[in-house]
Automatic annotation (TrEMBL):
Species: Corchorus olitorius
Gene Ontology BP annotations: 'de novo' CTP biosynthetic process; pyrimidine nucleobase biosynthetic process
Keywords: ATP-binding, Glutamine amidotransferase, Ligase, Nucleotide-binding, Pyrimidine biosynthesis
Physiological role: Catalyzes the ATP-dependent amination of UTP to CTP with either L-glutamine or ammonia as the source of nitrogen.
ATP-binding is among the record's keywords: yes
Chain ranges of the Glutamine amidotransferase domain: 313-546
Protein name, as recorded: CTP synthase
């Protein structure tokens, strides 16, 4: 059996260096060389998973097909590598200890004293070896390379067992199968304007002291490293100058894999992994075109994001990425206007008039309104007002999860005249509960009642926008993370008043997609389409939103009007849509319009949106 190769990415000096993006970019570069790549993210915190962590503090909770609630870096891996990971691809201290303690309770350690070394460190190594073998790219058999990212910074107390385990692991898998890339910082002191190597020297020394030897240094800095700085680093860190890569500031993160390629990072990795001669030169044509087009877009599409955690953009990372994928496909520059939902509420008008006015000005200036998922009642009234404004004024609207529930509540209140219509999440005593707690399992047992992961949605009608955007498929699989649902008892009432439930689960009891037919674009989804959006393969509902916002929806829908035609003659569909895509494209972008346009069109015509 062929041996798995491992690339470990560690970080030094400070946190927030973009280690996750660097590791994803390394994976992408290796994939572009023809290798099959999987990845593992290690988070040394004690939580068993990210499910209980506040997105306000820690960024969004990313959801996988299998229902795993994981660190947002797994989203970067899925997007860059176009793979589907499992919950086990995210290792935390909590998970490892839980595993070891469960074994201890079963008596598996046969009376031995259970210790960090060797029991925790062995468990970590076994976990890595087991998970690395799981195929994640839809093909059979294990990948060729597994990229492991160790979260945190070298020297953190909580990452020590992992460092020890990984040191042992490098021996276990043997030379030629393990490559360590250390991401570090080379700051420039303004006074002297000199690139300083000392922080990197220190962090490499720390790494060595813990038994790990870096093969490659990836140095973050504002500009490319001077040759003499590289020489100095090489001398002090014992890494050859060709193995020192600079990750200098770039206009958007899609350039990082290109930076790595230009500096021949793949060759350095192949040398360490004994792969020189087996892997081919990286082919990143489509990726390069997209990165460059993204820089040239100037005509804005303004999206008002009406949410709760507007202080930290990472709280909505996948939503932002999905909006970006769709905007690039429509050749528009994405401008997100963050609106704290509560600022739209009447109380803010009395308490903070400036904030209230600013929020409404942003909302009124938007080309599209998006209400994302959320929990808890803060800002709910503001979100309802935003949905009402979009509905009444024909502004393209997308409501995701809580956003969909908000759209239903708003409709019940404004159109059915049920003034106290609400979700029982916010008002357990409402006389008109249009959104209710509807667990898949036990109704009485509160733990584990979240509906999590991939579930199937069946389209109910074939002449609605959502089904067309999804390529006229009969059903789709999207990811969920919610407890509450539209009350099935109120569905007929709402439908009679004009709100269509165009997608439902297999039982017909759970409402998955809601739409208004007599509106330019008003769609709500109980699932989170953002988690499966990819660069070059924008998620259908996001593409619809952005296309509607910039007057391209008809063309986009027409392109996929007849599923039959599309499937037997995809070429025609592509050609008719290219015109749309080339409109509004300038300079460099025109040259590459077909490449990206094709990818985007192909994905939604075929319903290949993941
Ligand atoms: N709070 C809502 C629920 O639990 C919506 C969840 C969400 O938006 N992810 O159903």
């Amino acid at each position: 059996m062929k041996k798995m190769k491992y690339v470990l990415v560690t970080g030094g000096v400070v946190s927030g260096l973009g280690k996750g993006v660097t590791a994803s970019s390394i994976g992408l570069l290796l994939k572009a060389c023809g290798l099959r790549v999987t990845s593992i993210k290690i988070d040394p915190y004690l939580n068993s998973d990210a499910g209980t962590m506040s997105p306000f503090e820690h960024g969004e909770v990313f959801v996988l097909d299998d229902g795993g609630e994981v660190d947002l870096d797994l989203g970067n891996y899925e997007r860059f590598l176009d793979v589907k990971l499992t919950r086990d691809n995210n290792i935390t201290t909590g998970k490892i200890y839980q595993y070891v303690l469960d074994k201890e309770r079963r008596g598996d350690y046969l009376g031995k004293t259970v210790q960090v070394v060797p029991h925790i460190t062995d468990a970590i190594q076994e976990w890595i070896e087991r998970v690395a073998m799981i195929p994640v790219d839809g093909k059979e058999g294990p990948a060729d390379v597994c990229v492991i990212e160790l979260g945190g910074t070298i020297g953190d107390i909580e990452s020590m067992p992992f460092i020890e385990a990984l040191g042992q692991f490098s021996y276990r898998v043997g030379a030629g199968n393990f490559c360590l890339i250390h991401v570090s910082l080379v700051p420039v002191l303004n006074v002297v304007g000199e690139q300083k190597t000392k922080p990197t020297q220190h962090s490499v020394r720390g790494l060595r002291g813990l038994g790990l030897t870096p093969n490659i240094l990836a140095c973050r800095s504002t500009t490319a490293l001077d040759e003499n700085v590289k020489e100095k680093l090489s001398q002090f860190c014992h890494v050859s100058a060709e193995h020192i890569i600079t990750l200098y500031d770039v206009p958007n993160i899609w350039h990082i894999p290109l930076l790595l390629r230009d500096q021949k990072a793949h060759e350095a990795i192949f040398k360490v992994l004994n792969l020189l001669g087996t892997a081919k030169e990286p082919s990143l044509k489509e990726w390069t075109a997209r990165a460059e087009i993204c820089d040239t877009l100037h005509e804005p599409v303004r999206v008002a994001l009406v949410g709760k955690y507007t202080g930290l953009s990472d709280s909505y990372l996948s939503v932002l990425k999905a909006l970006l994928h769709a905007s690039v496909a429509c050749r528009k520059k994405l401008v997100v206007d963050w609106i704290a939902a509560s600022d739209l509420e009447d109380v803010t008008e009395t308490e903070n008039l400036d904030a209230y006015k600013a929020a409404w000005k942003l909302l009124k200036g938007a080309d599209a309104v998006l209400v994302p998922g959320g929990f808890g009642d803060r800002g709910v009234q503001g979100k309802i007002l935003a949905a009402k404004y979009a509905r009444e004024n024909g502004i393209p609207f997308l409501g995701i999860c809580l956003g969909m529930q908000i759209a239903v509540i708003e409709y019940a209140r404004s159109v059915l005249g049920l003034k106290d219509a609400n979700s029982t999440e916010f008002d357990s005593n409402t006389r008109n509960p249009c959104v209710i707690f509807m667990p898949e399992g036990s109704k009485t047992h509160m733990g584990g009642t979240m509906r999590l992961g991939s579930r199937r949605t069946y389209f109910q009608v074939m002449d609605c926008k959502s089904v067309k955007l999804y390529g006229n498929r009969r059903f789709i699989d999207e990811r969920h993370r919610h407890r509450y649902e539209v009350n099935p008892d109120m569905v007929a009432h709402l439908e009679n008043a004009g709100l269509s439930f165009t997608g439902k689960d297999e039982t017909g009891c759970r409402m998955e997609i809601v739409e208004l037919h007599d509106h330019p674009y008003y769609i709500g989804a109980q699932f989170h389409p953002e988690f499966k959006s990819r660069p070059g393969k924008p998620s259908a509902l996001f593409l619809g939103l952005i296309a509607a916002a910039c007057g391209q929806l008809d063309a986009v829908l027409q392109g996929c009007e007849s599923r039959e035609k599309v499937s037997c003659d995809i070429g025609n569909c592509l050609n008719s849509n290219k015109k749309v895509y080339q409109k509004n494209v300038n300079g460099y972008a025109t040259k590459h319009a077909n490449i990206i346009g094709d990818a985007a069109i192909y994905s939604y015509c075929n319903g290949v949106h993941s």
